[in-house]
## 1
Amino acid sequence: SVPLIFDCDTGIDDSLALVYLLAHPAADLRAVLSTGGNVPTDVVCGNNLAWLQLCGRDDIEVCLGADAPLEAPLMTTEDTHGPLGIGYAQLPVPTSTKSSRDAADAWIDLTMDNPGEMVGLVTGPLTNLALAIRRDPLLPTRLRRLVIMGGVFHHGGNTTPTSEWNIAVDPEAAKEVFAAFGTDGAPRPIICPLDLTESIRMTPDHLGRLAALAESSPVEQPGPDDEPGTRSVADNTIVRHLVDAIRFYFEFHEAQSEGYIAHMHDPFAAAVALDPSITQTRPACVDVETTGSLTRGTTVADERGFWGRPVNAGIATTTDADLFFDDLIERVAAFARERRGGP
Ligand code: BDR
Ligand code: CA
């Protein structure tokens, strides 16, 4: 199994990534760390607690992260993810509470306790990980793998003409994290950039398949009042909340002239964290522009050794999106069905 630290800014696609990780039998989620990004950090933390409780996994630790980027003021994007970061979903208010340790300490402690075993997955700004590495510079050498959704290399940005959201929110943090890799003993982080994740487009058809599969397949041990095939889509609570969240994301993408679809940035990165063989990667030395008046937050990849610095990343380039969606839909549907839509 894959022991995971998931650091996110939940977030509609972060939400689906989280449920996918809960649904995947290979994933052993040890902590969910909250970082400010799509919405403020405390709202992200509340969303993480709420999804875990809804899915019957409030035993998993949820940590609050830094409330602002290293140097810049926090920017959020409620237009993209809804006022609370989860689109139209209205999750029950969680009764569980956050951990007493902060997100950076969780990165440090979990990798200390399990050297060489933990897989890190970051689908938000890199603030927490940068703070953890400042406190503990050897942290990268204790990771088994690190997967980051962020950056853009040959494609237009989604935050400025040349920058991607997760990097643009905290460019200093991203710069520090990339600088901490490329040394002996540290794994090469896999970057899932916008170039690739924007080609992973969820459609209403995918969501319809998820809902149908979650509802119509027989449950393993149906109770007397819970006959398979008798529940409507809306009766499966987990699927209903996911559909309500993603509907907002479809509308946002449509308003951006992308069509009635949604880019599955973070669920794809989650799939790579569990099985890196689903993508091909290109080795590069990656750095982040922090001072350019037009280009702050831009990721730059040196693939030819111009800088004379070591390779510090593998940039994900291609994947089979259909296979990815089949896996996502089947696993999340099976999980929702098994849970009968609630804890
Ligand atoms: C990234 O930005 C966020 O809004 C999404 O959750 C994703 O992690 C895509 O640029
Ligand atoms: Ca995210």
Note: The pocket of calcium ion (ligand 2) is lined by residues 8-9, 11, 13-14, 38, 123-124, 266 (CB under 6 Å).
## 2
Amino acid sequence: MVSYKELGLVNTREMFAKAIKGGYAIPAFNFNNMEQLQAIIKASAETKSPVILQVSKGARNYANQTLLRYMAQGAVEYAKELGWEHPQICLHLDHGDSFELCKSCVDFGFSSVMIDASSLPYEENIALTKKVVDYAHQYDVTVEAELGVLAGVEDEVSSAVSHYTKPEEVVDFATRTGCDSLAISIGTSHGAYKFTPEQCTRDPKTGRLVPPPLAFDVLDAVMEKLPGFPIVLHGSSSVPQEYVDMINQYGGKLPDAVGIPEEQLRKAAKSAVCKINIDSDSRLAFTAAVRKVFAEKPAEFDPRKYCGPARDLMTELYKHKIINVLGSDGKAE
Ligand code: G3H
Ligand code: 13P
Ligand code: ZN
């Protein structure tokens, strides 16, 4: 058993309480490799933003659980080396799909876990979430749960349709499970294709897809039922068109990729939404930078020469999110 406290990590309790009070959101960035982690820490340290490092089940399998834990511990030390005196870094399991996986992460030094039982029937979601909460809370590890189903692919769980969270269920769910935060479904979805062209309109000037608005009425109703309770938004990448264009220009193929417009995320961040999940945008930045080097310098074969530019572009992206979208800069001196 390794306690996250020994690794210099923090859970989400205080982060979320401050974020709700201050009208901003904590960035939750997924990582799978060293360059992503370096970019996240550099951006957070330079902006003094609290940050959640997210590891999915797939990432844990890809990178190895032991290595990931030491990477997170290293991230805290790296942050200090960069001059961030009191780093506020949380290591979080993204979309845990079983009690065993959540327990293993708690035992391995995670400071927060998500149990995503949103695809199960309501009572089963409650039972599994409560089981995880009961275990995690013994070690002061915070737990995120989910109610409602996002469209698209949720880690290894796939759903073709989105079912918005039912506001009438949230009080019962939060009370009976004891979860610390709640991910809700209001129209966001995972990946780089959040809406079909049929769901969007087209900007007549640019020809770009314009997505439909998120269901802020559902968010408002949830906040009314659970005042001051931490709400989480998954699937919140904006799919920056400059990265999509770069990828397509240098041999990629991402037709009609579309994300959540930043102004909608800005609005959400000012509410009780205190955690905003971003993964796809980082994948796009990484891929765009690598494709550019490959196209322009076909003789290059030193990975540092293409992973380096990818890291720089991701750092720029994370800083932009922190400062211009979530407003979490300067909140963890
Ligand atoms: O919500 C899903 C995250 O983007 C993680 O995706 O399972 O491919 O690592 P992944
Ligand atoms: P995106 O695919 O929109 O980046 O969402 C990531 C996410 O929700 C991770 O849990
Ligand atoms: Zn997610």
Note: Residues 153-158 have pLDDT under 50 and may be disordered.
